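Subject: sequence -> structure tokens, single chain

Hey, anyone have a minute? Need the predicted structure for the following. Not urgent.
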Amino acid sequence: MNAIPELSGYADRSLLIVEDDKPFLERLSRAMETRGFAVTACDNVAEGLVQIGRAAPAFAVVDLRLGDGNGLDVVAALKQQRPDARAIVLTGYGNIATAVTAVKMGAVDYLSKPADADDVVAALLASGSEKSELPQNPMSADRVRWEHIQRIYEMCNRNVSETARRLNMHRRTLQRILAKRAPR
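Reply:
Had a minute. Here:
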């Protein structure tokens, strides 16, 4: 097995990938195998939980939104079975609220799709002591506001009336904001 230098320090190279986009799942699985991981691929939450029950892997890459549920359930089950496991969450629907939730559930990182295999490997093997670079394109003030509203909305279990009350804004105004696309 031809392992990359960073991975050579790990005795257990088992990797669970849970992703419902089959072409992406196949590409990522092949790419991770060429980088030295022993890959098990699943396309739904139920199958991912079964694989964790059989043998909890050392690493996991989990999509946030899956056809049969939330990928965070897989991360939580993995951390319960194997607390030292390193999991990252991938999503095409990124916002700060879900990123914070993913990290609280035990994920070591949160990547937006499309993420290439090198980004995934770097996130899985990051030591945590490395200082992250400043962003090239920081979020605009409108985006920061939108992210804050989304975080409160998620904390209120997607209840518009409760979110509007906590943000001290009119419910209809909040509904208009939530109906729009995220600003850049």
